[in-house]
Specification:
heterodimer; A: 524 residues; five-stranded mixed beta sheet; 13 helices; B: 339 residues; 15 helices; 0% strand
């Protein structure tokens, strides 16, 4: 319902045709929940936004909130750039968020059940829903953890989904991520930065806070730690400072107040994991690892690398150390498995999926392949085991040569590829360098923490990624995308609890140093 | 070695003024940030704008919006009121030169004191205070306020850190320095106690307040700049009682009351010619021991409220002792006998 009483406050703003714009509805009038926002933006003006943008870049550079961009394919040059936070936050009304929250939690529960099933009973295979041959051929299928059940049956301690909205406004799931979803640090930092840069935009909105995430994660990590003597020790395991997400690893360790370790800090003795400290070896109970299975233990995976902690997997199997996410979860977020998630939800949970999948086609299937190759120019083709937008082919943006190349790739190894229908992603007004607003496409990555097998908590909002180039559908920050602070609004129907009357205590009078002369005179 | 009582008093208050400016900036930044975000539990942060004025001891100018809200409880209007109040308080405590509680007033006073004791402090320290003051005067603070006061607060924090860093690096470790440091420490302890008391009125005797939610405790930690320290030291969710204990007792956190009292005790026992018979030093010695004892002994959260009151009363007594012993009887007005 567009609020028609408000005049269009964004001159020159043109929503992209055929897409939903989340602020300005039909006729250019803002949607009901966005009216106040549109007025604040108009009040701030292009100059105000441009000035705030300059302050933002300066603050982010000072704080070292940067990321690396590669100039293009093959170009290895990487530069530190301030993380591109757009100054127009995205608003998600309470009712819409309720659906997303339920839908994401449901998926994570189903994916968790699937991982358990893959390494134990194979129920879903026996029921004829997911073929075993597909499961074992996934690159992240982990044979060494067959039969290993982590504490509480929790595998996907931290998860996320990439959601998009189609032209009708429906939320669709593009991808699941239950390995090491990244970006939560930007969600938290974005909020802090927005409150500092453009406090006036918060006026008139009650935004649900996100800052409790580190505490939530710490609680989850502590709860899976093997019972032991007193306080469990939790660590964050990073591949090292050269990793592109090192900022996030350090951020989470700092926010949780735990050690940030590298492989060389960890050692396994008699199937127990320790870290090397100035006071000798100290037991580690719970490891939040931010690297792939392959680099965990050279004795079990990839004997060709020296990365990892020898013996860690044996300690894990013995149950003396918890690893989050559990080893082998990658099999569940493979893009070919994604296709089966709605079926998993019905099978494991006996529920109907709350969120639909973006239509996904398995190219290993001859029929689907033939159909997809025919309309290659209209669809998106993705490699199954990759992340970060690597190797993604977008039909409508490809020229004849690229089409031919992609066709050859698919035909050579169809099992490595899936195809998805192209979704006309929704748009949100986004500031340009001169402060003017333009419609840019967005997606949303909510973050979930699984506290136990029945309790999945979703941080209100998540990372909204935005394509900064007109018409572009590629939102990955490694490929020129930016991000937006994402506001989930408090339920307006739910009256704000009345704060108890503030009864101020009687404090002693505040003193100011009296000038010396007054004092010496008064004493006389 | 001895020094002029007048100079000692100026140094003591130079330390206090700068410390107050810094803590005010941190507090405003913390509350400002918490205020912008709705709370899931929807009980507004108790470390409210109202409480802030109390901490600083400033009088609110009654805004028109505040008057309007008295007659009209409309929701929309209430929003406008909160907003107006926030802007009023932020302005009053940050840039209002007419308000003695504002940051610019604290810095202006500090600069006058530093000018008076130019010969005692190092040149670099004087320049640090002077450029700090000039920068605040020169800068278009109203414009900075419009775009959000964050930039002002971060500058205040940096400049104060610069001053104390230069003190450590360039000033003789003599009596003069002791009084300067003592001023900084007593102010820091007092401000933290005020903040704790204003935001967590776990009142004496009255029924124990329900455990407050994470959000409030987080705001409080933000407001003293101790969030990361807390997370490293305590490693448990910030709840009111644990945060209060941390800010009161944890010596390893430099902003805690216990650490400030330690510092104050050390500074005065170095400065005093006969510390063993000096009332402020003796009283501080008892406070140090008492805080340590309470840290170990107190298990009852209900007692925290009265502990805060007692510690603050003790600190006020130290303040009087200091004035009586070192500043030629220039005691605080509260206890001064009528002239």
């Amino acid at each position: 319902m567009a609020d028609v009483s408000t005049p269009t406050p964004a001159p020159g703003y043109a929503p992209a045709p055929g897409c939903l714009d989340e602020v300005f509805g039909a006729g250019g009038a803002p949607w009901e929940h966005a009216g106040t926002r549109a007025r604040s933006l108009a009040h701030l003006g292009a100059e105000g936004l441009a000035a705030a943008g300059r302050r933002r870049d300066a603050i982010f550079m000072d704080q070292g909130i940067t990321f690396e961009v590669s100039g293009g394919d093959g170009d290895r040059a990487v530069r530190d750039r301030p993380f591109p936070l757009d100054l127009v936050p995205r608003i998600i009304p309470a009712a819409e968020w309720e659906t997303i929250e339920r839908g994401v939690a449901q998926r994570i529960r189903a994916l968790n059940a699937f991982v358990d099933d893959v390494y134990h009973g194979h129920e879903i295979v026996r029921a004829g829903i997911v073929p075993w041959s597909l499961i074992v051929s996934r690159s992240h299928f982990a044979r060494p953890v067959h039969g290993v059940r982590p504490p509480g049956g929790v595998y996907c301690h931290v998860g996320g989904c990439d959601l998009v909205r189609d032209a009708d406004g429906a939320w669709l799931v593009l991808e699941d991520n239950v390995r090491t979803p990244s970006g939560i640090s930007y969600v938290l930092e974005n909020r802090v930065a927005m409150a500092r840069l453009v406090p006036e935009l918060f006026s008139g909105y009650r935004v649900r806070p996100v800052e409790h995430y580190p505490q939530l994660l710490l609680t989850a990590l502590r709860s899976v730690a093997p019972a032991g003597d007193g306080d469990p020790t939790v660590v964050v395991w990073t591949p090292g400072p050269s990793n592109s997400a090192y900022f996030e690893h350090a951020y989470l360790a700092r926010q949780m107040g735990v050690e940030l370790v590298e492989a060389s800090d960890l050692v396994v003795r008699e199937q127990v994991c320790y870290m090397r400290t100035t006071a000798g070896l100290a037991r580690v109970h719970s490891v939040y690892r931010r690297l792939d299975d392959d680099f965990i233990d050279p004795l079990e995976f990839r004997p060709d690398t020296l990365l990892g902690v020898p013996g860690l997997l044996r300690a894990y199997r013995t149950g003396t150390v918890a690893i989050a996410n559990a080893i082998g979860t990658g099999v569940a977020d493979d893009k070919a498995i994604h296709h089966y998630v709605p079926e998993m939800i019905r099978f494991y949970l006996g529920e109907e999926p709350v969120l639909r999948n973006v239509r996904t086609h398995l190219l290993a299937d001859p029929e689907q392949r033939a159909e997809c190759l025919e309309r290659l120019a209209e669809i998106v083709v993705k490699p199954t085991g990759e992340s970060g937008g690597k190797g993604v082919f977008i039909g409508p943006a490809a020229d004849a040569a690229a089409l031919a190349r992609q066709r050859a790739l698919v035909e050579r190894d169809p099992g490595r590829w899936i195809a998805q229908d192209l979704v006309r992603l929704s748009t949100v007004p986004t500031t340009q360098a001169d402060g003017r607003l333009a419609a840019r496409h967005v997606d949303l990555r909510p973050f979930a923490v699984m506290v136990d097998a029945d309790d999945v908590q979703i941080v209100p909002g998540g990372l909204t990624r935005v394509a900064l180039v007109e018409g572009s559908l590629i939102v990955n920050s490694s490929r020129g995308g930016g991000s937006k602070d994402t506001w989930v609004l408090e339920d307006a129907d739910q009256p704000r609890d009345v704060a108890p009357e503030y009864v101020p205590p009687t404090l002693p009078e505040v003193r100011y140093g009296e000038p010396w002369h007054d004092q010496s005179q008064q004493q006389q | 070695m001895t020094m002029l009582a007048r100079i000692a008093q100026e140094l003591f208050w130079l330390g206090r003024d700068l410390s107050r400016a810094e803590l005010t900036a941190r507090m405003l930044d913390g509350v400002f940030h918490a205020d912008l975000q709705g709370r899931a539990d929807a009980i507004s942060v108790t470390l409210s704008w109202e409480a802030l004025l109390l901490v600083i001891g400033a009088q609110p100018a009654e805004s028109s919006a505040a008057r309007a809200s008295a007659d009209d409880g409309e929701r929309a209007l209430e929003k406008a009121t909160t907003r107006a109040t926030r802007d009023d308080v932020v302005r009053l405590l940050t840039v209002d030169a007419a308000s003695p509680a504002s940051i610019v007033s604290c810095v202006a006073r500090g600069r006058e004191r530093a000018r008076t004791v130019r010969d005692v402090i190092s040149t670099e320290m004087w320049e640090a205070v002077n450029t700090f003051h000039l920068e605040l005067v020169r800068r278009d603070l109203s414009a900075a306020m419009r775009t959000g006061p964050y930039s002002i607060y971060s500058e205040v924090k940096e400049r104060c850190a610069l001053f104390w860093g230069l003190t450590d690096r360039t000033m003789m470790r003599d009596e003069a320095r002791s009084f300067l440091v003592a001023g900084g420490r007593i102010e820091s302890a007092d401000m933290v106690l005020r903040m704790l008391r204003a935001s967590l009125p776990l009142s004496t005797g009255a029924s124990v307040r329900e455990m407050l939610d994470d959000g409030e405790a987080l705001a409080l930690l933000h407001a003293v700049g101790g969030l990361q320290a807390y997370r490293r030291a305590v490693r448990a969710a910030p709840r009111t009682a644990s945060v209060t204990r941390f800010l009161l007792y944890d010596r390893s956190y430099p902003g805690s009351v216990a650490a400030s009292v330690d510092g104050l005790h050390y500074a005065l026992s170095t400065a005093d010619t006969s510390p063993r018979s000096a009332p402020p030093v003796l009283r501080l010695g008892r406070m140090v021991a008492d805080l340590d004892f309470r840290r170990r002994a107190t298990v009852d959260d209900a007692a925290l409220g009265s502990t805060l009151v007692q510690v603050q009363e003790e600190l006020a007594a130290v303040d009087r002792d200091v004035a009586n012993r070192y500043f030629a009887g220039a005691a605080p007005r509260a206890v001064r006998s009528p002239a």
